[in-house]
Amino acid sequence: MLTLLPLSLLSALLVGLTYPSSSGNGVNAVRLPFQVRTTNPFGSNSSSLSSLSRRSHSKRGPSSATIPVHNTHNAEYISNITLGGRQIPVLLDTGSSDLWVTGDVPNTTDLGKSVSLNYAVGNAHGNVHTADLTFAGYSVSDQAYLLVTDTSSFSMDIVSQGFEGLIGLGPNTGSTILDEVDNDSASSVLDRIFSQNSTSANYLTILLDRIGDTAENVTGTLTISEIAPGYEKISSMPKLSVDMVHKLTDADQHWQTYTDVNGVIGPDGQPIQIDSIVPSAPDNQLVVVFDSGYTLPQVPRAMSDAIYGRVPGAVYNEASEVWTVPCSQMINLTFKFGGMDYPIHPLDVSSSDFNMVDATGNPVCVGAFQPITSAFSLLGEYDIILGMAFMRNTYTLLDYGNWIKDSSIDQNDPFVQLLPLTDPTTAKNDFVKIRLSGVDSTGDAAHQLLPADQMQHSPFSAGEKKKMYAEKVLSRWPYILVGCLVFVLLMIGLITWRCCVWRKRRNAAKAKTAASMGISTGGLSKPEPAYPLEMQGTSSPVLAKTNYSMDDPYAYHDTKARDVV
Ligand SMILES: *[C@@H]1O[C@H](CO)[C@@H](O)[C@H](O)[C@H]1NC(C)=O
Ligand SMILES: *[C@@H]1O[C@H](CO)[C@@H](O)[C@H](O)[C@H]1NC(C)=O
Ligand SMILES: *[C@@H]1O[C@H](CO)[C@@H](O)[C@H](O)[C@H]1NC(C)=O
Ligand SMILES: *[C@@H]1O[C@H](CO)[C@@H](O)[C@H](O)[C@H]1NC(C)=O
Ligand SMILES: *[C@@H]1O[C@H](CO)[C@@H](O)[C@H](O)[C@H]1NC(C)=O
Ligand SMILES: *[C@@H]1O[C@H](CO)[C@@H](O)[C@H](O)[C@H]1NC(C)=O
Ligand SMILES: *[C@@H]1O[C@H](CO)[C@@H](O)[C@H](O)[C@H]1NC(C)=O
């Protein structure tokens, strides 16, 4: 009997790695009991898998900077690295920035620094090592990585899932290892590759295939500093500038950008209007993170409801925190970036990759655009995480630009380019063939969306509400900080000013006394009025109070103590 992998644990594990700041301190709920098949969900037909490996040997491409990406259950995308001479399959994660592997690594050097990566499911612990690395045809020496010796905390056998580590492809500022070692030599893999290989093309591209889609002919591919053959059109796609998080929290920086205004078009063809939680986001635009380490995209709950809540027969599964829908329902969904449409394949909007059944035991599909809960950004840095079910629909280019400090050539701002891969008409035919046995019943009365006023809503949990309140405060911390600073400065100013007034008054009083005694006090030939401020005639209550305290005989002697306050 095969053990069943709780996929949620994987997502949770990735959450832990990817969003350390928002997932620390055990605030993460572990998502249970999601279950996927551990065998190829599409039976013995692994043609799409073998075609991937075949491509690696065919070398039709221009260079070894183009490598195959292996797809496990549409839930994990994996490529090989060579570390210390050993070939290791690692999960590709654009949402984090560290490299970790398990098992033996030859020719490795232990730096003696231990690092803990926080998982929602436990704590993975290991020492930072360095070893020579080759990735996508590029080699770096002494790459820093975390050698995880104890994998028991993973709650699953990652090796049986086809990987023995994870490579973070996010910005260097997010690297925990770099933070710990505190030496540029411990930078992330891509940072090292681009730094040593000065190029104006500081980019990585990634192309994810879809298992179970017989019509698709995408081959999972990753490239560095070059475009996958056949996808050159990506160069003409809009450059989406990366939305930068605050400098002080840039460990949380991700590959993130804004949608267009009203940039998510729901199943009824109308925009889904949701307010961003990001304080700096322009009206009607949302901040999305591109994260290849996330199986299911995470969207605001109201958006998930808008996508699935009007589907006849939709049921919200509270235990798994997903909508389930009849697999025969085609659901349209389109994202808009830089004026371009990015339609989502209906096979990705509702996924058959999970063995879910309804109350009567009939198979149901999972609403892949899941309400965001554990990955909710408490600092209010993003609204949506676009994981694999989104990224299968685009050929994605991530340009690191001036994130690479040592690269003298490309000092432009980082950006993202997306080439849409899903044609709605082709995708619909595909869906009809695969889910509807070739009979187009998408227009049937049974498949019409419910009227908007009959839309179902999924329940907010108490914890979720708390997080949303916390976010409202935490996301505004720069403003709150500035507010506090201004307040402190005002107080200091006020106190200083009071002291000046007192000194002036005392000096004036002294001068007056001296003058009346016929003694010259320096250059002060004409004594100042004793109460210059009172003479301004201001009615400010603060001043009034000041004047009042000035009459306090102890005030003069007290100024030192007051300065401290
Ligand atoms: C395997 O997939 C191919 C197309 O990719 C299809 O022609 C063939 O019938 C499938 N075989 C099985 C056993 O499903
Ligand atoms: C990784 O390397 C192994 C062993 O050489 C090979 O069997 C596998 O196909 C490779 N995987 C990928 C995604 O290239
Ligand atoms: C790495 O280790 C392998 C096997 O342990 C050995 O054959 C090889 O010479 C080593 N390479 C280096 C550069 O030390
Ligand atoms: C950083 O690492 C490099 C290479 O390991 C080493 O030569 C250098 O001395 C280190 N710098 C600091 C400040 O530790
Ligand atoms: C740098 O990139 C060029 C072109 O891709 C390649 O020929 C060269 O080997 C690379 N250098 C290193 C050190 O990887
Ligand atoms: C598959 O690839 C070929 C060659 O790249 C292309 O001509 C064809 O349109 C593709 N088919 C689909 C369904 O995308
Ligand atoms: C969904 O998309 C298909 C394919 O583009 C289109 O034919 C259909 O009218 C769309 N449905 C709605 C409700 O917009």
From TrEMBL:
<dbReference type="GO" id="GO:0006508">
    <property type="term" value="P:proteolysis"/>
</dbReference>
<dbReference type="InterPro" id="IPR034164">
    <property type="entry name" value="Pepsin-like_dom"/>
</dbReference>
<keyword id="KW-0472">Membrane</keyword>
<feature type="region of interest" description="Disordered">
    <location>
        <begin position="42"/>
        <end position="69"/>
    </location>
</feature>
<feature type="domain" description="Peptidase A1">
    <location>
        <begin position="77"/>
        <end position="408"/>
    </location>
</feature>
<feature type="compositionally biased region" description="Low complexity">
    <location>
        <begin position="44"/>
        <end position="53"/>
    </location>
</feature>
<dbReference type="Pfam" id="PF00026">
    <property type="entry name" value="Asp"/>
</dbReference>
<keyword id="KW-1133">Transmembrane helix</keyword>
<dbReference type="InterPro" id="IPR001969">
    <property type="entry name" value="Aspartic_peptidase_AS"/>
</dbReference>
<keyword id="KW-0732">Signal</keyword>
<keyword id="KW-0645">Protease</keyword>
<dbReference type="InterPro" id="IPR001461">
    <property type="entry name" value="Aspartic_peptidase_A1"/>
</dbReference>
<feature type="signal peptide">
    <location>
        <begin position="1"/>
        <end position="24"/>
    </location>
</feature>
<dbReference type="GO" id="GO:0004190">
    <property type="term" value="F:aspartic-type endopeptidase activity"/>
</dbReference>
<keyword id="KW-0378">Hydrolase</keyword>
<dbReference type="InterPro" id="IPR021109">
    <property type="entry name" value="Peptidase_aspartic_dom_sf"/>
</dbReference>
<keyword id="KW-0812">Transmembrane</keyword>
<comment type="similarity">
    <text>Belongs to the peptidase A1 family.</text>
</comment>
<protein>
    <recommendedName>
        <fullName>Peptidase A1 domain-containing protein</fullName>
    </recommendedName>
</protein>
<keyword id="KW-0064">Aspartyl protease</keyword>
<dbReference type="InterPro" id="IPR033121">
    <property type="entry name" value="PEPTIDASE_A1"/>
</dbReference>
<feature type="transmembrane region" description="Helical">
    <location>
        <begin position="477"/>
        <end position="497"/>
    </location>
</feature>
